[in-house]
Design goal:
Number of strands: 0
Helix content: over 70%
Shape: rod-shaped
Structural class: mainly alpha
Largest sheet: none
Radius of gyration: 67 Å
Distance between the termini: 228 Å
């Protein structure tokens, strides 16, 4: 019986060992399955990280391009503001010059009218003086003729006497 006990005892030991081995095999299988799942998850995460890194790099490049475009627009705005400021300055200067020109033209017209009036007065005086001179010349010629006639008569009298 001892051998039966041992055999039955030994049979239960084997079955426990078999059960322990089965459990160990199941645990190892679960570990490998977990390991494979973790490897797949890790691989998926690495792929995701790679994709996100590429997306980040594209976004950074787009941001650099956008910043460059923004800078170009700021530069263009600054140039346009400068041009507009210069134009406003030129328009202001033009208004001042037009105003000064208008004043000079008015002053010139006033002077022209003043000189025309003076010229007309001078012409009238000249005509009057010329008329007086003509009268005086006429009187002098008349006196000279009278004197000449008188001298001629005297001579004739003196020659006849």
């Amino acid at each position: 019986m001892h051998s039966d006990e041992t055999g039955s005892h030994s049979g239960s030991t084997i079955s426990r060992k078999d059960a322990d081995l089965d459990r160990a095999a199941d645990d190892i299988h679960l570990l490998f399955q977990s390991y494979n799942d973790l490897v797949k998850q890790n691989s998926h995460k690495e792929t995701t990280i790679t994709d996100l890194t590429k997306q980040l790099q594209r976004s950074q490049e787009q941001e650099r391009e956008a910043q460059h475009s923004i800078q170009q627009l700021h530069d263009m705005r600054d140039r346009l503001q400068s041009m507009l400021s210069k134009r406003c300055d030129l328009e202001d200067e033009n208004k001042l010059l037009q105003s000064a020109l208008g004043e000079k033209e008015k002053a010139l017209e006033d002077e022209r009218q003043k000189y025309e009036t003076q010229l007309e007065e001078a012409q009238k005086k000249l005509e009057m003086v010329e008329g007086e001179h003509a009268d005086e010349i006429g009187k002098l010629q008349s006196q000279a003729e009278t004197q000449s006639e008188s001298d001629h008569r005297r001579k004739q009298r003196g020659q006849t006497a």
